[in-house]
Amino acid sequence: MRAFTERIKLVASLLVFGGAMAWVIIGHFGWLAMAGATSDKGALAASLDKTTVKLGDTVWLSLRYRLPDGAALQTPPKIGGIKGLEIIDQAVDPGRIRIKLFVDRLKSWQSDPLTLSFTDKDGVLQTLTADPVSLTVSSVLGEKPAEARLRPIQDIIPTTGFWRSYWLLTSILAGLVLALTGAYLWYRIRRNRNVKIEVIEPPHLIAKKALEALEKRRIFEKGQVKAFYFIFSEILRRYLESIRNFPAVEYTTEEIARHMHSDNDRKLLALLRQADLVKFAEIVPTPAGKEQDVQQGLSYIYDTGPVSEDQERPDIPGQLSGGRL
C-alpha cells in the first residue's frame, strides 16, 4: 500500500512538472511569433534617465528603435513630439538616439507622442511612434515651499561700529586722504599738459565697422558659411549687449528672447534664430539671402542707434524679419 502511494505522488509530480514546462515552451514560442509578426513594422520606445528634476537641471531622453528590414533613418534624424524644453545635445547610435534637454520651466512637463521618421526599403517615408514621457519639476525650496525658512547670507550688521564711535578721527583721516588725492591729481595735470584723450567709439559705429570688415573678408563667398554666420551673430549679440545691458553673447537665443521688450528687438530675434539655423541645422542660405541678412542687421543698428541730421538711412529691402534662404 505504501509503495502504491509513492507511485501516485511520483506520477503527480511528473504531471505538474510537465505542465509547467509546457507553459514555458508555449509562452516562449508565442512571444517569438508575436515578435515575428511585428518585426516588419519596427518599434520605438522612449524613456528619461530621471523623472523628477529641478529648475536648471538637464535630463537625457532615450529613444530605442528597431527599423524594418531595409529601412534607414533620415540624416539628421527627424524626431517629433518634443516641445517646451530646449535641446542642447544629441547623440545618435545604432538602435538608440539620446537627446539632452534643459529644464527651464517651473511647471511639470509632458511631451506629445514621440515620433521618429524613416524611409522603408521602397524609399517611402514612414513613422515610428512611442508613448509620451513626462517630467515633474520640483521646487528648489523643497517639498513644502510655503513652510521653507529663508536665512540671510550674512549675519545682521550692528548699527554702531568702530567708525561711528570714532567719527572725528575718521573725518580727519578722510579729509587728509582727499587732500593728498587732490594734490596728486593737480601735480599730474601740471606735469602732463599734453594728455591725449582717448575717444571711445559708440556701440553702433563699432557694430557697423565690424559688419563692413566681415563683408570685406568674403569668407561666405569662399564657402565658410558657418564661420560667417557665427561672426555675424556675435557682432549683433555684442551690440545688443552694449545697448540693453544684459550678457547677450553668453545667452542662448531663447534666453535673449525673455529680455526682448521693444518691437525692434523682437524683430532682431528672428534674425538671430535665422543665424542659429545656419550654424547648427546645416541650412545654407543663398548669396542673396546672406546679403539681405547683413542689410537687416544694419537696419537694426540704424533704428536703435543715435541719428544725426547728416546721417542717411541705408536703402534696405524688406523689413527686419530674418534672412531668406
3D architecture notes:
This protein is an alpha+beta fold and 325 residues long. Among the domains are: 43-138, Sandwich (Immunoglobulin-like), CATH 2.60.40; 203-304, no CATH class. It contains eight helices and eleven strands. The protein has helices at residues 2-38, 162-165, 167-191, 203-217, 225-244, 253-257, 263-280, 287-304; strands spanning 43-48, 52-54, 58-66, 72-73, 79-80, 86-93, 96-102, 109-110, 114-119, 125-130, 134-138. The strands form three sheets. Strands 1-3-7-6 form a four-stranded antiparallel beta sheet, with no helix packed on it. It is flat, with a radius of gyration of 34 Å. 15% of the residues are buried. Residues 23-38 and 317-325 have low confidence and may be disordered.
**Straight-line distance between termini:** 96 Å
Number of strands: 11
Helix proportion range: 40-55%
Number of helices: 8
* Biggest sheet architecture: 4 strands, antiparallel
Class of secondary structure makeup: alpha+beta
Indicate the proportion of strand residues: 15-25%
Mean pLDDT: 78
- Low-pLDDT stretches are 23-38, 317-325
The value of Rg in angstroms is 34 Å
In sequence order, what are the helices and strands, one letter per element? Answer: HEEEEEEEEEEEHHHHHHH
Q: What's the overall geometry? A: flat
Spatial order of strands in the largest sheet: 1-3-7-6
